[in-house]
UniProtKB/TrEMBL annotation:
Keyword Transferase carried by entry: no
Composition bias type Gly residues, residue spans: 246-255, 312-327
Signal sequence residues: 1-19
Protein name per the record: Uncharacterized protein
Organism annotation: Rhodotorula taiwanensis
Bias (Basic residues): 393-416
Regions that span the bilayer: 350-370
Keywords: Membrane, Signal, Transmembrane, Transmembrane helix
Biased composition range(s): Low complexity: 228-245, 256-303, 328-341
Region of interest: Disordered: 30-51, 216-341, 374-430
Taxonomic superkingdom: Eukaryota
Amino acid sequence: MRPLVLLLVVAAIARQASAHMELVLPPAVRSKSDPQTAEADKDYSMTSPLEADGSNFPAKKYATKAKLDALKPVATLVAGQEFSWNLGGTAVHNGGSCQVAISYDAMETMVVIASWVGGCPLSLPYKFKVPDLPGCDKCFFIWSWFNRTGNREMYQNAAVVSISGKAKQFVGPQIYRINTFGKGVCSSAEGIDIMFPAPGDQVFYANGMSASSPVTEIDCPDWDNKKTVTVTGPGNGPTATAPSGGATGTTGGSAGSKPAGTSTVSTGTKPSSTASGTAPAGTTASATATGTADTTTSATGGSKEADDGTLSGSGGGVVGTNGGAGSGPTSTSSSSSGGLTDLDSDKTPLLFGGGLALLLAVAAGVYCLVQRRDRRSGYRESSSDDDSERAYSHRRARRSRSPRRHSHRQLRHEKRRHDDTDSSSSESTD
């Protein structure tokens, strides 16, 4: 029984040690990383995936209207400016594909604003340019992840954010959803990076994936992964930076009346490249740059500027669609990691192996202590049994000797009487 209990304890500790990933920047609803979340409401298993039967889709069912009303925004997205997001955890499952989305109606409609195809989340943190979105004082920022290796799972968290933007509406694909319709239903194959059939206008490629990679075609019941949705916002949203404890990336975009531009960047062997020239407003600016460093491409002409999206890390291409901020406000917000340390994917197996070795050492120590205690307990029981046996034998011996002592006394008494009788007889004869 004791070894079984020990194994259960070890399994529970191992489950915690092999935690997966969670959204920490901005911190998700019920995350331990959000200081405004009460201790009793914190989910310390936030890194676990969604249930395979979809019972807690979307976002573990934490992103509700009640939470939206009760919580303060933890970050502010500014249309036309750069935004950074980050994850916590160590089990990256050799990457995969991620999406970020926005919902204005408490998760009823979730529209994709950026996708990472392949290698996600191997190069944290990630950045993207906020498209021309409708503003909101409170809405949900959603992160989804489909892991490359391991069990066929879907991870999803949502955080309360505000958006500074003046667009009337935004049109884009609804979020991608698989692995949450029951075992063997609408499931992805292991060992591949998901190529979204509708990734949106801003897409980042890595791990050998590109815009020409074959689309991952999976039929899912009552969910169209190619569907386009339209969202509208309640207003222009705030013009200030994120409140304390928020998680916005450093931004430096400029506002104006420019139309959206599109840029394409690919990486190779040269450190960086910058191309400039003249182009009429509304055209597409493109350049090819090689290298493993960040690449930036821009084109200027007339009254128009087109800025590309930027992806940090080695390898992989970037395709970004960059809308200006319209006539919306310009603001700058600072990034804060909250003490988190980015993990190199090459070190993840080493860290996991070291943690597992430490776990086994602790388990072995606990097992030895249990065995030692059992031996001591057995020795005490054995000693007690021996003492009881000796006491019992001693009592039996005493009882067995008592009659003999009594018999000897009787013999001596009879002998004295006999001697007295003989003596009396002798005197009478005389």
